[in-house]
Amino acid sequence: MDRMQPQRTLIFFACLALVLFWQRADGQQQTLAFSSVDSPNANWYIAKDRQLYKKYGLDVELIYIPSSTTTIAAVVAGSVAVGNISGGATANAAVGGAGVVVVGCFINTLPYELVVHESIRSAQQLKGKSIGISRVGSSSDVAARVFLKELKLEPDKDVAILQVGGSTERAAAFRTGRIVAFPAPPGVIHLTQGMPHRILASTADFPKGFPFPYVCPTASKSYLKSSRDSMKRLLMALIEATHFFKTRKEESKKIMAKYTRHNNEAFLESAYQSSNKLFEQLPLVNREGMDVQVKEAAARKPGSTLKVDDIVDDSLVLELEKEGFINRIYKP
After folding, report:
1. N or C terminus: which one in the chain shows less Cβ crowding within 10 Å?
2. Residue, of 1 and 56, whose pLDDT is higher
């Protein structure tokens, strides 16, 4: 009898156990959260619908949390591994002491229009009235305040800012007269169902544009450190989903209709066309836009020394670029 056989058997089973452990660890379900069903967030649910997370070896539960501020709270608490969070919400959380990091950004501007009742023909006519947002600290809140300042109005003083919910809820509040204005992502004006309205302002018309990290995969620093490979594969899935959106128009509109629960063709077409122009092929964070958000967050907390590099790590995106992954996805 081979005296080494028991040792070899022990080594074999030890190695097998280690392999199975890593398979279980690697295949552990991850909870991801996206904060809006609007078209700028479509790559998150397209990746789920087209099984792209699975393609890159991820077992994903994708949940909808209708606010960046709520989503980042879930990331900090550990109930969500990675969230689709705006730069403003991330900066505010980081100033408050949260160890969070943005690993990329698929849309780096705030694509909003200020929808107002048809009777509102000037900024001054908004005084004493209400504008609707989803939640305080959300992207719609940022957009509302940016629009009001651009129109020489003081938020909360000249115009009340009300939390009414997502873009669909804002459109409903607009129809009932609870609010006379709301910041809307691309295409949402078509959901006002005939309510007389006009576009009073648009970030697209700002003289210098409006750089703003808007659709950004964000995680805790501890998660990124322990799960870099999973995060990299998540970015691969989202990059391919973005390419799908850019190149498969009708299929993408069908998926948007499924998740938004709206079959309004004008809404879907407008939303698709607007977001298609904005999605980044190379999803790096716009540092200028993030710097603005960091400075604004830090100004609300005296003594804060937060810098952009404290909350941005797009090294995985640069790795994917260097390895040729993005070029392969976008190769004609």
Report:
1. C
2. 56
pLDDT at 305 over 90: yes
What is the value of pTM for the model shown?
A: 0.81
Which two structure tokens, joined as six digits, stand for 161?
A: 């800012």
pLDDT in the model for residue 29 = 83
Cα torsion through 48, 50, 55, 61, rounded to 10:
10
How many C-beta neighbours within 10 Å does residue 182 have?
30
In the chain, % of residues over pLDDT 90: 62
Rounded alpha-carbon distances, angstroms, from residue 128 to 123, 131, 136? 11, 10, 19
pLDDT, average across residues 76-91:
94
Contacts of residue 55, Cβ cutoff 8 Å, sequence gap at least 6: 237, 240
**Closest among 192, 58, 40 to 115, alpha carbons compared:** 192
Q: What is the mean pLDDT of the chain?
A: 87
The DSSP symbol for 326 reads: H
DSSP state of 331: -
CATH superfamily, domain 113-205, is: Periplasmic binding protein-like II (3.40.190.10)
Task: Catalogue the long-range contacts made by 176-180 (C-beta closer than 8 Å, 24 or more residues apart).
Answer: 178/130, 178/132, 179/129, 179/130, 179/131, 179/132, 180/116, 180/117, 180/119, 180/120, 180/126, 180/129, 180/130, 180/131
Q: Three-state SS for 195? A: coil
Nearest to 35 by CA among 114, 135, 120, 116: 135
The dihedrals phi and psi of 2, each to the nearest 5 degrees, come to -70, 115
Residue 238 in contact with residue 283, Cβ under 8 Å? yes
Residue type, position 17, single letter: A
Query: Strand pairing partners for 107?
Result: 215
Q: pLDDT of 229-239, one tens digit each?
A: 999 999 999 99
Q: 28-109+211-262+278-330 with 113-205: one CATH topology?
A: yes
**Residues forming beta bridges with residue 184, ordered by sequence position:** 113
Tokens 């003594």, residue located: 303
Q: Which residues of 301-316 are buried (b: 16+ CB within 10 A; e: fewer)?
A: eeebebebebbbbbeb
